[in-house]
Design goal:
single chain, alpha+beta, four-stranded antiparallel sheet, five-stranded antiparallel sheet
Length: 300
């Protein structure tokens, strides 16, 4: 599996329409030096909001679009209510707040320019430019220690209440046999679909927090656990590093992953194997049936 950069990328312009805001002037108090916070200075915002404008255009109805005038007022409020040392922090906070406030904005490009930065030589301006947006993620859950259903329900509740997550769907909870050859109780398993503003590593960190809250101890690979939360997919990302591999390894051989995924997203296509979840489940069931009945006979 090849490694890929997990940083935010500019949205595919063929997928989204754009609302552009150029050189919006906002007087704010961001900077490392005390005089910058005290006196303030002009900042300029350039933003591109990505979403669908077709219905708004067809019906001539502002309710079906994002009011750019309201966005400008909102950005002024966000960029002036707090002070930050770094324009990186100011841009990050404003972009996140905008995505949380306006549901029709799927992603955005956000540039914050600082033309009066304290640099002792001629220059036009300094700026930071970031790309942020909602991402579709799928997370597998499992438990076979203690009150498994309570651990699972508690984690799902926390995920649904997380401000950086929306549109949560949960599969049926199924009972499954342990995987990996370790003797232990049967599991309860399932999967969660969500849209999130977390980066892949940010989501991983959040899931680890939920596992730790449930008393998860990582002592034995494929061993029993109070709560197991694994990222299966993050958009169509293919990524591998020391702490995270996406898509989840060996899921094609795990019915306790394929069955919930085929329920939630039967037509979602694996970015490596190119098959849908329904196709992968069907292939898995055929393979296991062939192993159980090598002579071609049907099992009861």
């Amino acid at each position: 599996m090849r490694s890929m950069d997990t940083g935010e990328k500019q949205p595919d312009e063929t997928m989204y329409d754009e609302i552009r805001i150029d050189n919006l002037e906002i007087f704010a108090h961001h900077g490392v030096f005390p005089e910058e916070k005290e006196k303030g200075q002009l900042f300029y915002v350039n933003a591109v909001l990505y979403g669908s404008l077709q219905e708004a255009g067809r019906r001539d109805d502002l309710r079906l679009s994002t009011d750019y005038g309201d966005v400008c007022l909102f950005l002024r409020e966000e960029l002036t209510k707090n002070t930050c040392d770094l324009i990186e922090a100011a841009a990050e906070q404003a972009a996140e707040a905008l995505l949380l406030r306006y549901p029709l904005v799927k992603a955005l490009s956000f540039e914050l320019r600082k033309p009066k930065a304290p640099i002792p030589m001629p220059f036009d301006s300094v700026s930071v430019k970031i790309y942020r947006g909602w991402h579709r993620a799928y997370v597998a859950f499992g438990s076979n220690l203690g009150d498994s259903r309570a651990y699972i329900d508690g984690a799902i509740k926390e995920i649904k209440e997380d401000r950086l997550v929306k549109n949560v769907k949960v599969s049926s909870v199924i009972g499954t046999k342990p995987y990996g050859g370790v003797e232990q109780p049967d599991f309860l398993n399932g999967a969660i679909q969500m849209d999130t503003l977390y980066t892949p590593h940010g989501l991983l960190e959040r899931l680890h927090e939920l596992e730790q809250a449930a008393g998860r101890e990582r002592t034995l690979r494929w061993g029993p656990r109070t709560l197991d939360l694994d990222i299966l997919f993050y958009d169509k990302l293919v990524h591998e590093d020391e702490t995270l591999i996406i898509p989840h390894v060996d899921m094609q051989n795990r019915d306790f992953v394929l069955r919930p995924m085929a329920e939630l997203a039967p037509f979602f296509r694996h970015p490596v194997y190119g098959r849908t979840m329904a196709e992968m489940l069907s292939q898995y069931e055929k393979q296991t049936s062939d192993v159980k009945n090598p002579d071609g006979s049907r099992g009861c």
